[in-house]
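**User:** Hello, beginner here. Are you able to go through the protein record under this note? It all follows right here:
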Amino acid sequence: AANNVDIGIGLLSGEHPGVTSEELFRMSGVCAVPRNHHLSRLKSVHARDLVREPFISLGRDDRSRFGVDKVFDNLGVTRRIQIETEQSEAACAFVAYGAGVSVVDPFSTYEFDDREIAVLPFKPRVEFRLWALFPSSRTPSHLARDFLSIFKSALERLDQNTITPRTSPKGAAD
């Protein structure tokens, strides 16, 4: 909004008068659990599996949280929220330290080694969206548009199997 960048990429749409948003990609949320947690042995995690688990939630100001909350509310599942954090990466860090489990976007799990956390498909589906953000006060540069075109092409080659579960540590047999 301050007109200091040509393009931004984020999970929030930038609903601000100085920002124009363009949706790039939709993806299914995943459940991040500590590597040695009993849920790490499952093929997927259902919201009902998390009833008694310490839960690390996205913060109340994070609009991504609304989709996660809605799934649990619709099923009548009460979570044991232990920690709230404004970033999915921070939620994954708490998971890696064994503080609980979380439902996050799959990209946020990438900085964590498979020996720290297991990343499992989450049911029912929670949708996360990836957005391109531009200053509303000017037309994006040719360079920004070219970058976005290449980035979109790379996203189109992804599918849900490419960006979701990582259940076995690197180098381990499946």
